[in-house]
Amino acid sequence: MSDVPGWTGRSRSTVPGRRQFLRAAAAGTAGAVAWSVTACEPSQVPPPRPRLIPFGTGWLFGPATAGSSQPGFADSGLQPVTLPHTVTRLSWREWNPDSWEGVWVYRKHFDAPGGTAGMRVFLDVAGAMTRTTVSLNGRHLPSHTGGYLPFSAEITDRLARRGNVLAITLNSRFNHNVPPDRPPPYAPGSVDFWQPGGLYREVQLRVVPQMFLADVFAKPVSVLADADRHVVVRCTVDAAVVPRGSVTILVQLRDGAREVSSVTVPVKITKRGRVTVTGTLSGLAGITLWDIDDPKLYTVLATLQVGGAPLHDYQVRIGFREASFQLDGFFLNGRQVKLFGVNRHQFYPFAGGAMPARVQRKDAEILRRELNCNMVRCSHYPQSEDFYNACDELGLMVWEEIPGWGYFGDARWRAAAHRDVGDMIIRDRNHPSIIVWGVMPNEAGEHVREYTDYHELARSLDDSRPTGGDGSRTDASYVFDVYSIHDYRHRIGPGGLRQPELWPATDAAGRPYLVCEAVGTLSGPARHYRRTDSQNIQQGQAAAHARVHDIAASDDRYCGLLAWSGYDYNSGHGSQLGGIKYTGVLDVFRIPKPGAAIYQSQLDPKIRPVIQPAFYWDFGPTSPVTSLSSAMICANVDRLEIYVGGAHHATATPDTAHYGHLRYPPSFADFTGVNAAAHPELRIDGYLGSVQVVSRRFSSDPAGDWLLLAADDAELTGDGADATRVVFRAVDAYGAPRPYASAQVRLSVHGPATLVGDNPFDFASAGGAGAAWVRTLPSSAGSVTVRASHPVLRSAPVTIRIRQP
After folding, report:
1. Burial (CB count <10 Å: 0-12, 13-18, 19+), residue 161
2. Is 585 in a helix, a strand, or coil?
3. pLDDT reported for residue 46
4. In the sheet that 309-318 helps form, which strands lie side by side, from edge to edge?
């Protein structure tokens, strides 16, 4: 190595897998400074430029065989792939772990990027399932085990100028002694969610100077006190050389291009390795707080300087907010807020976890803007940082937790869980959306000593957030800050169906009380909620979720409730149909079911008035609306005027007797006597006071049904990874969902993209709604047309633009 460049770079993070945004001073401009490694003295050599290099294209993939990690291996027979990637083709149902339980190899031939002389080069892997062995040009790098957190390997000394061969060997078998997996004789289905193997998150090369900023943690303090508000910024420098000049870090708080505050912190480096220093940003009286309705974000920019010249920048986003769990509820910025949300699994049909940033971000948008959740529990592992970035921007609060499910292993397993606590918090502690660290493996039982260690580690790394872990009312080992409980209590209601209840909130543990799971398959009325089920079951899911949220809203001692679950998910554990747990208020395609109606209606009508039936206006033979004893209409208005066949049928008002603690209780109507043979239309008008603010129509005549096709995004980037969802469903003449559709949907794609999905798609099994994802091709541009066709509902096209990367 010859030079450490002087530059002004910009990165959100150098933690593996995070996107980094870099800016460099123009090479060769007057005054540009380079730093000699050997002398550490200024020179006038135009500096190389630090940067991030996306490393997702040009991979070859296949089963690992003898010698497949060696440079000379004949790999022409391997399959070209683009990352993120899953090792096997998946449908939306019936995932088979035999298809991914193996050892695989990813190989990439590449030349060293230009401008790496005098620089350090790292390989960053954001997520790989599950045990990863890396070799470059036949020389092994440190291995990594664990599927949900990033890792890095420095490749500086092993990188050749030309003809490099990188081989990542991936063991995707289940029986690794690391959470959430477990050793033999356990099988993959012993964990509640399938874990398909693959390099399923981003991979990149990171080119940095010999001395660089490895981490920045910016912690807002005394957020609600204008005079005392400040940010404690802890910066970690990684030095491969000992500089002779003075070293400082300039830390700035920025609101866009405007500097709000700054401080310069001296750094003393006397030997190679890492050193951490702390600075304080003050004078922050005019700060706007981060809130669920106004998620204001600021930038902290740390610049490493040698002899006054900028060397390396590191950028993070933060928000100023006080999230406080108390015995009498949860308070955000001093205001009591009832936590209202669901649990989320990160896996998708067809692709497992291998979805790009745009798709990950869409999940957060659905939860916040379509379901009106103010919080999500990321069960049961750390999820994509792209998802957390979107939560920061949308005002969606987050419970993040370490990997684990129903098991607590030996000393080696427990040490891996301890490592996960540290890695999770270091990666994600700058996200203002995260308000709880879940540092207990899910439903792992009572282990006081280990949980105390995990809790203390979390507090040492970030004392600004409480810890939590799922418990029961008899859990004597509870050592966390928040008493968070899985509550599947129920009673038998009318017709012999289960009706969910909740245990009374208690402060007996001396800790705030949060319900972090409820409903699901265990507290009914049913164990599965599919579009192919009867209307009574589908509507029953909406009523069950409404009931538990109403109970949680009835007592301030409940900080809130996060229901099970947001999305259906693929599983081999317990009782499930087609390999899916149908517990979600949205299906695996992220399409709302009738069970989502109660969430969709919990929105201020000044933002958008909502009328969302938890039933289908359908009189077909499978399950007509007349089979419902009482039809549930979720709305956020004062009253509903209901018309059937043009004639006034009923006036409905919110059911405050049974759901009076919800902000917007549902209403109910009786349609049992409606004449189906007349094919009557349904019209529901919504009023605030005397003013009609919303109206919806529904057709019962299937002759007017059609096939709806819609894409989430009109434009994608042609980098081979970007993708968007394309939803297709049977709808009536007014665009309302029509259930119980039959036959198949056939899809075609014309243009520079590929389809991620089943083709043809079994419409009947999905109940008349489904989706596929359209993924771009590497280095592509142009227009893509997707067409969906159905033998009865006809066909529909949608066009997506692909722009050059």
Report:
1. exposed
2. coil
3. 52
4. 258-267, 247-255, 298-306, 309-318
pTM confidence score:
0.93
Q: What CATH number was assigned to the domain covering residues 335-600?
A: 3.20.20.80
- In contact, 45 and 36? CB cutoff 8 Å: no
Helix (H, G, I), strand (E, B) or coil at 410: coil
Parse the chain into domains and list their residue ranges. 51-88+96-208, 211-323, 335-600, 607-697, 703-803
In whole angstroms, what is the distance from residue 642 CA to residue 683 CA?
6
End-to-end distance of the chain based on CA atoms, in angstroms? 32
205, β-bridge pairs:
53, 123
User: Which stretches of the chain drop beneath a pLDDT of 70?
Assistant: 1-48, 476-477, 508, 575
| 621 upstream amide cis, omega within 30 of 0 | no
Which residues have a Cβ under 8 Å from the Cβ of 367 and sit 6 or more positions away?
A: 341, 342, 344, 373, 376, 396, 566
Angle (CA) 378-231-215 rounded to 5° is 60
Q: Return the closest-CA partner of residue 343 out of 514, 554, 537.
A: 514
Instruction: Output phi, psi for 695, to 5 deg.
Output: -150, 140
d(CA 249, CA 139): 36
At 466-487, the pLDDT tens digits run 999 988 777 755 799 999 999 9
Give Dmax over CA atoms of the chain in angstroms: 92
Fold agreement between 335-600 and 607-697: no
CB 62 within 8 A of CB 104: yes
pLDDT of residue 493: 83
d(CA 436, CA 97): 32
- Amino acid (one-letter) located at 111: D
3-state secondary structure of 115: coil
Between strands 782-790 and 706-711, the pairing is unpaired
| Tokens describing residue 170 | 């991936």
Residue range 211-323, CATH number: 2.60.40.10
Q: Domain 51-88+96-208 classified CATH 2.60.120.260? A: yes
Distance separating alpha carbons of residues 341 and 602, to the nearest angstrom: 11
Per-residue exposure over 201-239, b if at least 16 CB sit within 10 Å of its own CB, e if not: bbbbbbbbbbbbbbbbbbbbbebeeeeebbbebbbbbbb
Contact 434, 428 (CB under 8 A): yes
Report d(CA 403, CA 380) in Å as an integer.
5
pLDDT of residue 22: 33
Q: Are 1 and 39 in contact (CB under 8 A)?
A: no
Helix (H) or strand (E) holding 800: strand 794-803
Whether the CB-CB separation of 307 and 245 falls below 8 Å is answered with yes
CATH number of 703-803: 2.60.40.10
Q: What's residue 159's pLDDT?
A: 96
Within 10 angstroms of residue 425's Cβ, the number of other Cβ atoms is 23
Q: Does domain 607-697 have CATH number 2.60.40?
A: yes
How confident is the model at residue 174, as a pLDDT? 97
